[in-house]
TrEMBL record:
It comes from the Bacteria. GO terms for molecular function: oxidoreductase activity. SUPFAM superfamilies: Helical backbone' metal receptor. This is Nitrogenase molybdenum-iron protein alpha chain. Residues 76-467 form the Nitrogenase/oxidoreductase component domain. InterPro entries: Nase/OxRdtase_comp1, NifE-like.
C-alpha cells in the first residue's frame, strides 16, 4: 500500500486501513474478520488498502475527542515550533491539559520545562461568513515575531473546513517569506470518525516539509515514535550500542529532520507509529522494525532480536535478553504470587491494549474483557509480523469480551458488569470515575512507557498492587453514589443494545 505524500491532505484511517469504532465479540473473532495475519476467507474486502469489517452503528455518540486534538498533542509538543489552531476558541480548550502534559513530559525527560507554544485564531461568526484567512496570516506573523520558531504548524478545524479557507496557499506564501516550513495539517474533526487520523495528519506534514531529503545515514541512530513518556528506550537501546531519536512529541525540528538519517524506526504502539514508520521506509529507505510490540517476554524478545538483526547487533541483543530475564525473574515470581486470582480489564487505545493484556497475563492476572477505543484491521506496512491482535491471541490466549467503542460512557457500565474486574488499566481517564463509582480502582497510565519491556512487567505489577491497596475507598464510594442512568438501562445485558437494533420512535429515550 503506497503512502501518497504528493497531496497535503492525509488519507483517513477509514479509507486507508478500514478503521472501525464499534464492535463486540471475542478477540479471536475480530482477528479473523480483520484477515490480517489470518488471510483465510478474506474475500473481496482485501486489496492493497483497507480491510472491511461489519461495524456496529449506534444512534448517537456521547463524547470522544477528534483529530484536531491529536494534532495539538503532537505538533503542539515540538519544542522549537509553534502550532496555530485555525479555529474557534473552543477548539483551543485542550491547550490547558496539553500544556500540563507537555510540562510533565519535559520534566520526565530532564529537559528544560516551559509552556507550549500554541496560538488560536479565534474564529467568530463574522469569520464564518467573510472567511478567516486574514486572521490566519496575522497569526503566523505573530508566531514568528514572538517565538522565532524553526517551523510553524497550522491545524485546521471543522469551521475552516466548512468555510474553505485556502490554508495551503497562505502556508506556501509564508514559507517563502519567513524561510521556515509553514506546514498545513488538515485535521478537521469531521474528516475521520476516530482521532488517530490526527496522528497521521501531523506525521504527513512533517514528512512533506521537514524531513531531510538528502540524509547522511547514521548507522547507530534509531527513530523511536512515541508520545511523552519516560526515557526507557535510551538505556535499553544503549545495550545494543544504539542511540535514540525520540519523535514526534518533545522533539526539536532538527530531530524531526534527521529521521531520514536513521538506521531503523521503532515505536511503542502501532496505532501511533504505523503511518510514519511505513512512510520513512517507503520514501527514505529507513527500515521499520517488523516485529511484535515490546511487551512481555515473547514480544520484547522478538522486538529486540529483529532490531538487532536490522542493525547488525545480534550478539549484544542475546546477551542483554539473557541478563534481563535473569534480573527480573525473582521479583516477577513474587508479583505473580501476590496477584494470583486477580482479574484485570484494559481500556486503552487499540494496539497499546494488545500489549498491556500480554503483560497482565505474564503477571498471572486473568483478563476476560477489554475495551479498545478503535480497531485498525491492518497497519500501513501490511506486514503480518505487526499484527498485534493476532500475536496476542496466539501467544496469550483469547479475550472473550473484547469490545471496540470510542469512549462511550453509557456503554462502559455494562462492559464492566460483564466481567466484574478487580481493577482496570486506562489511559484516557474520562472513563475512570465511572469505574470508581462501581467500586473498581483504576491505574491511569499517564506514562505510556510504564509497562514496556522487561522492567515494564515489574512496573505494572507493582502499580496494580498499589491501586488494589485502595480498593476499600472505591467500595465506599460505590456504596454512596448513584449512577446517572435509568433502571431499565442498567438492567440490560448488552451494552451495545442500541446499536444492534433500530429502535422505534422514542424508544431510546427510555434509557436516558
Amino acid at each position: 500500500m503506497k503512502i501518497n505524500l504528493d497531496t497535503p491532505v492525509v488519507e483517513s484511517r477509514e479509507q486507508r486501513l478500514g478503521t472501525i469504532i464499534a464492535w463486540d465479540g471475542k478477540a479471536s473473532d475480530l482477528s479473523r474478520q480483520s484477515a490480517y495475519a489470518r488471510a483465510e476467507g478474506c474475500g473481496a474486502g482485501c486489496g492493497d488498502k483497507a480491510r472491511r469489517i461489519c461495524e456496529l452503528q449506534g444512534p448517537f455518540t456521547q463524547g470522544s475527542v477528534c483529530s484536531e486534538q491529536m494534532v495539538e498533542c503532537q505538533a503542539g509538543h515540538v519544542r522549537d515550533a509553534v502550532l496555530i489552531q485555525h479555529s474557534p476558541i473552543g477548539c483551543g480548550a485542550g491547550q490547558v491539559i496539553y500544556n500540563s502534559i507537555y510540562r510533565n513530559g519535559l520534566a520526565m525527560r530532564n529537559l528544560p520545562v516551559e509552556n507550549l507554544h500554541m496560538i488560536n485564531t479565534n474564529l467568530k461568526e463574522e469569520d464564518m461568513i467573510f472567511g478567516g484567512e486574514q486572521k490566519l496570516e496575522q497569526s503566523i506573523r505573530d508566531a514568528w515575531e514572538r517565538h522565532r520558531p524553526k517551523a510553524i504548524f497550522i491545524g485546521t478545524s471543522c469551521a475552516t473546513g466548512i468555510i474553505g479557507d485556502d490554508v495551503d496557499s497562505i502556508a506556501g506564501q509564508l514559507t517563502a517569506e519567513l524561510n521556515i516550513p509553514v506546514i498545513p495539517l488538515h485535521c478537521e474533526g469531521f474528516k475521520s470518525k476516530h482521532w488517530s487520523t490526527g496522528f497521521d495528519a501531523t506525521q504527513h506534514g512533517i514528512l512533506r516539509q521537514i524531513v531531510d531529503r538528502r540524509p547522511q545515514r547514521q548507522e547507530d541512530l534509531v527513530n523511536v515514535i512515541n508520545l511523552w513518556g519516560t526515557d526507557v528506550f535510551t538505556p535499553m537501546l544503549a545495550e545494543l550500542g544504539l542511540r535514540v531519536n525520540y519523535v514526534v512529541d518533545l522533539a526539536t525540528v532538527e530531530d524531526l529532520a534527521k529521521m531520514s538519517s536513521a538506521a531503523a524506526t521503532v515505536g511503542f504502539c502501532y496505532t501511533l507509529s504505523s503511518y510514519l514508520g511505513a512512510a520513512l521506509e517507503q520514501e527514505f529507505d529507513v527500515p521499520e522494525i517488523k516485529a511484535p510490540q515490546p511487551y512481555g517476554f515473547a514480544g520484547t524478545d522478538a522486538w529486540l532480536r529483529e532490531l538487532a538483526r536490522v542493525t547488525g547487533r545480534e550478539e549484544q541483543a542475546e546477551s542483554y535478553i539473557a541478563r534481563e530475564h535473569a534480573r527480573i525473574a525473582p521479583r516477577l515470581a513474587e508479583l505473580r504470587q501476590l496477584l494470583k486470582g486477580k482479574k484485570g480489564y484494559v481500556a486503552t487505545g487499540s494496539a497499546y491494549a494488545h500489549g498491556l493484556i500480554a503483560v497482565l497475563r505474564e503477571l498471572g492476572i486473568e483478563v476476560n474483557g477489554s475495551l479498545v477505543f478503535h480497531h485498525d484491521p491492518v497497519y500501513d506496512s501490511q506486514d503480518t509480523k505487526q499484527d498485534s491482535l493476532a500475536y496476542l491471541v496466539d501467544n496469550y490466549g483469547d479475550v472473550p469480551s473484547f469490545s471496540v467503542s470510542n469512549r462511550q460512557q453509557y456503554q462502559f457500565y455494562g462492559l464492566l458488569q460483564r466481567v466484574q474486574p478487580d481493577f482496570i488499566l486506562i489511559r484516557h481517564n474520562g472513563l475512570a470515575p465511572l469505574a470508581s463509582r462501581l467500586g473498581i480502582p483504576a491505574a491511569p497510565l499517564g506514562d505510556e512507557h510504564h509497562a514496556l519491556g522487561y522492567q515494564g512487567m515489574v512496573n505494572l505489577g507493582e502499580s496494580i498492587l498499589d491501586i488494589l491497596a485502595h480498593k476499600k475507598f472505591h467500595q465506599n464510594l460505590a456504596a454512596h453514589v448513584k449512577l446517572p442512568y435509568k433502571k431499565e438501562w442498567l438492567e440490560l445485558q448488552d451494552p451495545f443494545a442500541l446499536a444492534r437494533r433500530q429502535p422505534e420512535s422514542g424508544e431510546e429515550k427510555r434509557y436516558a
